[in-house]
Amino acid sequence: MPSKRIIPCLDVKDGRVVKGTNFINLREAGSAVELARRYYKEGADELVFLDITATLEKRKALLQLVEEVAKVIRIPFTVGGGISDTEDIDLLLKAGADKVSLNTAIVNNPYLISDSAKAFGSQAIVAAIDVKTTGIKTEVFIKGGRENTGIDAFEWCLKTVELGAGELLITSMDKDGTKDGYDLEFLRKVKSSVSVPIIASGGAGTLRHFLDAFQTSNVDACLAASLFHFKEMKISDLKNYLKENNVDVRI
Length: 251
Fold this sequence. Notes:
- This protein has a single domain (5-244), classed as TIM Barrel, CATH 3.20.20.70.
- It is globular, with a radius of gyration of 16 Å.
- It is 35% helix and 29% strand.
- Strands 1-4-5-6-7-10-11-12 form an eight-stranded parallel β-barrel, surrounded by six helices.
- The chain is an alpha/beta fold.
């Protein structure tokens, strides 16, 4: 069975890494290239790089930045933001990305998942799903969390896998930046219903939160941002803690 993964997330705006709470109130965290280099040296298993305003501003992801980040790391690297077709994906993969993260584009055109999976392989296609509870439903949000689609989040997770997504990156908007822990219930429900790896995102604040996500929800990877960006937690300390609690991680 593959080792559990720890993945720092670099949300980028205007070429700088930023982090907010519930997708708003952004504050700068530093250079994407320098943070990528740091996380690689500290033992991150992968990185996720999201150009968080590319879709809203109707522009493409920053290819030059992707190329620069790819030069300083030797771990898998996922890129998202502003991707609208297979040509965009081709350019990003050629620029150095190992995978692409698709969010708004696949809600607008679900068959981009199957077309992309056929062209580049399912292993390169990550369905990024931003979810938020509205009343009694958990629904899918797009455009950097600014637009509610009204789509049932659980059903959308199942559909993206059916169409060929090789991995799901599930972000709880309710939990994002709160440091109250991951949405264990929703993650467990999805994990028990699909065969592809699940990355948990949104809410990590303590070592225990990562352990709970792995042991209670059985996710394959945990993603975090501000904890790592602002040096509130070291990746090495986290991995040692997980290892001590019988979670298989690469040290």
